[in-house]
Amino acid sequence: MIRAMSQPEHEPTKMAIDPVCGMSVDPATANEKIDYAGTTYYFCSAGCKQSFAADPGKYLGESRVGHSH
Q1: Rounded to whole angstroms, what are the CA distances from 16 to 23, 35, 42?
Q2: Can you give the pTM of this predicted structure?
Q3: Is residue 41 one of the residues assigned to a domain?
Q4: How many domains does the chain have?
Q5: Is residue 28 part of a domain?
Q6: Integer angstrom CA distances of residue 17 from 42, 58, 66
Q7: Long-range contacts: 52-55, Cβ < 8 Å, 24+?
Q8: What is the per-residue pLDDT across 2-34, written as a single tens digit (0 to 9) for each?
């Protein structure tokens, strides 16, 4: 079992999280993605991508409230 203790031959893929539904998405194979505010977001489906595109702040926790007086 020495091989099992050795380093992996290649790094495992770092998964992205779909900001709409919370699913893990492999950036290398994701068909749907959007670049927003300098960050690339990956989606499990076109539906999640469309929801995000319609209101990114809703999924990123950005407030839509104006400045308080």
Answers
A1: 8, 13, 7
A2: 0.71
A3: yes
A4: 1
A5: yes
A6: 7, 15, 29
A7: 52/19, 52/20
A8: 555 555 555 566 999 999 999 999 999 999 999
